[in-house]
Amino acid sequence: MIDPLTIRIRPEQSADQPATEALALAAFDPDPRVAELVRRLRASDSLIPELNLVAQLEDTLVGHLMFSRTSITSGHQVAPLSPLGVLPTYQRQHIGSALMKHALNWLAASPYPVVVLEGVPSYYPRFGFVPAHDLGIDPPFNLPPAVWQAYCLPAYSSQVKGTVHYPEPFDLNLLHLTGDFF
């Protein structure tokens, strides 16, 4: 098991881009769509640059996480999380958790009221994610309720409701991931 204190979390740099794309290919193998999403988000105004993070262990990038910004029909800005990937040989060693904790700490001081994601129902509740439908937050397309999750940040109020509108980089008909990954 890796000591979480040896994991360095930092913003992605341009020199990291080939490694983060390769990481996405490995983490979501055999599906290349997440690597394409990484490229599209990186080039988008919707990316939150401070939350385009890598986890580095010695000289190896072992994890990657990206947050973007988008709106919900109530008019609020929300922060979708996608993707979060860890190299297969480093999974279940607290790397994804280290990335998540770092990002959620940053977001706690931000004006964003909520994080949304499509994710494994058994993984994200450990960080405080709940079914988004319970908060009146709907996905832009039909998803199983347990997969569509939300995390309330300090700026959250019950007026944050409605349908999330994913930013343009997600507008790839091939990027509806749920059917293939969950």
TrEMBL record:
Lineage, top ranks: Bacteria, Pseudomonadati, Bacteroidota, Cytophagia, Cytophagales
Protein name in the entry: GNAT family N-acetyltransferase
CDD domains: NAT_SF
Alphabetized UniProt keyword annotations: Transferase
Domain N-acetyltransferase: 7-154
GO molecular function annotations of the record: acyltransferase activity, transferring groups other than amino-acyl groups
Signal peptide range: none
Source species: Spirosoma pollinicola
Pfam families from the UniProt entry: Acetyltransf_1
Gene3D superfamilies xref list: 3.40.630.30
